[in-house]
Amino acid sequence: MQHPLMFSVMTLLLSSTAALATELSDTLTLKGKGELVYSTTEAAHGGMRPWYDAGAGQLDLRRSKLSLGPQSLALEWAPLDHWSATVHGQYHHLSATGVDLTEAWLTWQPLPLSGYKTKLRAGWFYPALSLENTDPVWTSPYTSSFSLINSWFAEELRANALELSISRPGRAFDSTLSLQLVGALARGNDPLGTVISWRGFALHNVQTGLNERFAFAAYPSLKQPPLTMQPNWVEPFEELDSTSGYYVGLHALWRDSSELRLYHYDNKADPTVFRKGQYAWKTRFDHLALQQQLGESVRVVAQVLQGDTEMGWQTVVVDYQAWFVLLNYSTDDWQWTVRFDRAKQTDRDETVFDNNNGRSRAWTANVSYNLGDFWQLGAEFTELHSVQPNRAQWANWPVDHTEQVARLMLTWRIH
Q1: 258 pLDDT more than 60
Q2: 33: Cβ–Cβ under 8 A, 6 or more apart, which residues?
Q3: Residue 38 pLDDT > 60, yes or no?
Q4: What pTM was computed for the model?
Q5: Which residue in 212, 52, 57 sits closest to 124, CA to CA?
Q6: Residue 391 has pLDDT above 60, yes or no
Q7: Which residues form the domain of 204?
Q8: 114 near 106, Cβ under 8 Å?
Q9: What residues pair up with 232 in beta bridges, in sequence order?
């Protein structure tokens, strides 16, 4: 396992010389973030081991008390006016390859025309849904873990998209309101919806690489017809039915203190298609993100998600909802954050031996202190309570379960 060691050494060296490294040249910029974690909670045993350890647990509970968290780097190259290329990479402990790309795209942004700004992006990237994951390399400035919503996005959502956005900046029109319209054609995300249908929503900070396979528990229902072709893994960024999906969005910013993002996403997948060892999932959702600045030090962030997914000839049909509210208080050196999450899956198919109902709630508290421009010391506690009836497929696996984890984190950050 030389790759994780090499990557962690590289990131630590980069962070220690960050003042020189952030602008490598006139055209090349480096950003990054990573953490060293001490966990006070040992990994769970039996069926409540984490999903990546063949269990049905929904928290990232490490086997080792001291471990590396995700180590992430972003490189932006802007060799020409109006053109740039961006690549995001990450090492995390779940990856079979050690290091993988999480996003890669090209951007064309010409000069404004009559005050309006236009931007075209092409490649693999997250739609700009999240107001929580705003730190370098799609991480969160508030907590180590992501919300239930953004943890799922990190697992399964990445569009191979051609995206056009048109912005009306308020300053250019002597207005306190700025608006942006976004539209995209997207491919390569046909298995989206697989993970939450069986395991439910999880809470962590791991982003699936573009070439990674995401594993979950081998539910006994997957060994019975008509589910025998469904594996207990997903390669979420595959194009299976040769049909493009789309998403559309609206961003609104008022007085630089109130922000709203509203999106509709539809992968337009054919749920009866089976290729490359997995089904396409017809998945669509509506998503609302809100942010409100309350004075100089206090900020509220919230997101709401509602959608549905279908696989096979209505073999699996699941509605899902999730939301969170985050409260953050920041000073020059200290930061306090509290987040509360809820999520729910509703089974609407008639596959009686495969119960995909579920619900989860979680709360997270984080405090951090800046040790300097590039280092931060933090502590975080999370409790997640979940009810997943499909755990009853195993003897002695709890349907109703509460998981907890407390961590100390030493974080480096290049921005």
Answers
A1: yes
A2: 72, 135, 136, 137, 139, 411, 412, 413, 414, 415
A3: yes
A4: 0.93
A5: 212
A6: yes
A7: 2-414
A8: no
A9: none
Q: What is the CATH number of the domain that holds 312?
A: 2.40.160.10
- Between CA 36 and CA 412 the distance in angstroms is 9
For residue 10, the model assigns a pLDDT of 47
Tell me the three state secondary structure of residue 226.
coil
For residue range 172-198, what is the model confidence (pLDDT) as tens digits? 999 999 999 999 999 999 999 999 999
Contact 263, 246 (CB under 8 A): no
pLDDT band for 94, please (50, 70, 90 cuts). Answer: confident
Question: What's the rounded Cα separation, in Å, for the pair 113 and 365?
Answer: 45
Greatest CA separation found in the chain? Answer: 67
- The structural domain count of the chain equals 1
Q: Residue 271 in contact with residue 193, Cβ under 8 Å?
A: no
Query: Residue 83, Cβ neighbours under 10 Å: how many?
Result: 13
d(CA 33, CA 12): 10
By DSSP bridging, strand 278-279 and strand 177-187 are: unpaired
Summarize pLDDT for 260-281 with one digit per residue, the tens: 999 999 999 999 999 999 999 9
Cα–Cα distance, 19 to 251 (Å, whole number): 33
Q: Which two tokens stand for residue 304?
A: 């709401």
Pairing of strands 177-187, 28-39: unpaired
